[in-house]
Structure prediction request, 309 residues.
Amino acid sequence: MAKVTVVGAGNVGATAADVLAYREIANEVVLVDIKDGFAEGKALDIWQKSPINLYDTRTVGSTNDYSKTADSDVVIITSGLPRKPGMSRDDLISTNAGIVKSVTENVIKHSPEAIIIIVSNPLDVMTYQAHITSQFPRTKVMGMAGILDTARYKAFLAEALDVSPKDIQAVLMGGHGDTMVPLPRYTTVGGIPVTELIDNDTLEAIVQRTKTGGGELVKLMGTSAWYAPGSASAQMAEAIIKDQKRVFPVCVKLEGEYGIDNCYLGVPVVLGKNGIEKIIELDLNEDEMALLKSSEKAVREVMNVLDNK
Ligand SMILES: NC(=O)C1=CN([C@@H]2O[C@H](COP(=O)(O)OP(=O)(O)OC[C@H]3O[C@@H](n4cnc5c(N)ncnc54)[C@H](O)[C@@H]3O)[C@@H](O)[C@H]2O)C=CC1
Ligand SMILES: O=C([O-])CC(=O)C(=O)O
Prediction:
């Protein structure tokens, strides 16, 4: 029996709950929101879809009553403001830090053994906030960004090469901001290094588009994305619940890996029933390491804002 709580029943949270339900990743999904009746409504709508899409995951909604979330195996936190055009993710820190703090306090009261996946932005620093509040080990508090950013990179490549996105393997590191580090040297298409299939200028343009991929959608829609972020969050929960040992880029506290200490950054990890089961250390070249360090600097600046709040 696997139980997943999703806090925040807005665009990302409701999408994650829907994917968890229709793909039968969990037996029970509890959606929580602060808006009266909102989570109950979304949960009921997802449940009413079950006879059409044929799944039996129970979906439960709750307005801020965390007793319904008791003994969750995984908790996905999406509560908080999304950005509007013209904003950076970091602009959300003052509002979202308070929300993530209070939600985490409620979550751990009822699910002291849960593994927590943060989605709220600014992602790396909100993961830090959840860690400070929960005092959970770093293996059990992580952030979702790398799967999404890598998916954008893969989708752009699949389009440019006119191949299936299924055949693209890639890894992306760093913070979930415009300093993220896509790694063409670790990108293959059906086992073939991507550099043998695409010219440098096109590849560089795709790397740049990936870095600002979230902003591209905010500009188009007036709010941020949800289908890919919701699916990516559910995919992380699935890896944990089913002990799949998937290799994904995940935001985690680094404690000396890559020569970086006490900073939250996206790196490739093995994800299984214990959460982050291993951090994979790639042998980055000088240029790649320089990009990772500049991403670290950007994240640290926002971590400092939180420390000084
Ligand atoms: N890590 C990532 O890659 C991504 C992160 N995000 C972030 O996820 C967050 C949510 O985005 P959306 O779902 O689009 O926003 P949304 O506005 O559609 O939903 C957020 C929900 O959180 C709820 N909420 C606010 N305070 C709460 C509290 N204290 N307790 C429970 N619920 C509360 C709101 O009532 C709202 O329903 C944003 O911070 C956004 O920036 C969005 C996409 C990707
Ligand atoms: O761009 C945003 O604000 C939301 C987000 O993190 C993303 O879609 O990558």
